[in-house]
Amino acid sequence: MRVENVKPSGAMNGELPPLELLRSFEAAARRLSFTLAAGELHLTQSAVSRQIQQLEASLGVLLFERRHRALSLTEAGGVLQRAVTDSLERLRDATARVRASAAPRQVAITTTPGFASLWLIPRLVRFTGSHPQVDVRVSATLDVLDLERSRIDLAVRFVPIDRGVGAALFEESVVPLCAPQLAAALHAPSDLSGLTLLTIEYPDHSEAPTTDWEPWLKVMGLADLRMKSTLRFTQYADAVAAAVAGQGVVIGRLPLLQDLVRDGHLVAPLGEGAASRRGYFVEMSKRAGSNRDAQDFAQWLRDEAEAARRT
Predict the structure, then answer these.
(1) Has residue 223 got a pLDDT over 80?
(2) Residue range 107-118, pLDDT digits in tens
(3) Rounded to whole angstroms, how far apart are CA atoms 191 and 200?
(4) Which of 155, 148, 173 shows the shortest CA–CA distance to 252?
(5) What SS3 class is residue 263?
(6) pTM
(7) In 3-state terms, what secondary structure has residue 160?
(8) Is 232 helix (H, G, I), strand (E, B) or coil?
(9) Helix %, strand %, coil % for the chain, to 5?
(10) How far apart (Å, rounded) are the C-alpha atoms in residues 197 and 23?
(11) CB of 166 within 8 A of CB of 282?
(12) Cα–Cα distance measured from residue 211 to residue 286, given in angstroms and rounded to the nearest whole number
């Protein structure tokens, strides 16, 4: 039965054809090929042909002129193509806008485990309190992650001062710290020889920053100092916890431990610290340029660092 002799189905009451028929028509009209349209839509050529015939039957007009190995649009087909193309584009744009507005707001940050546990996390509630709609994802690792490949907005890097990239948060100083009950045994640096050394080792990260005592010992002229015993940890926060528990003396990295010193959990019986010539820097990824929440987070980090310096 020829298409032009088929009684239109739904044409009189203004019903729209099914969307899948219009999608097949748009692809076939754009490519002027049922075969190419089928490949694009992941259908068979016969399925596309049947859908076009169904659409033509529902409208009561031919949309394509079938020539030998060629297709062309009829006048009616051209009218419908312009309308369908415009409508599908509008639908795509609207869908993209709806998805964007519904997408979760997120900030992804990478930093060292020590900075995350001792400085960032205790303060993080102030950011999340003022940005309750923002999800913060913290990747605490000694690995230097590629921000773009890892889809991370920003990094707080702990590096030598002369290698810092991005905004500087603060420079680090180091000083021996211990629990108040051990402080009475420390009157001079040489008294360290009677106490337990709390230190960190990273066997798989030879280039990673460490809390080794060497920078402070060199400044103090105590490079050959040996302490009574040693406790080694893989995480700086664990060494700090041991120091708070009175198990030995840890090299305090300031300002990471500034709050513990201020609250009296740790003391510095041997006086002020020495500059380690390392610091913390905020490095932003390219993707952060379109993430206002990531920019707000970076500014919040700078504000928190400035507040810490003032205290």
Answers:
(1) no
(2) 999 999 999 999
(3) 21
(4) 173
(5) coil
(6) 0.63
(7) strand
(8) strand
(9) 45, 20, 30
(10) 72
(11) yes
(12) 31
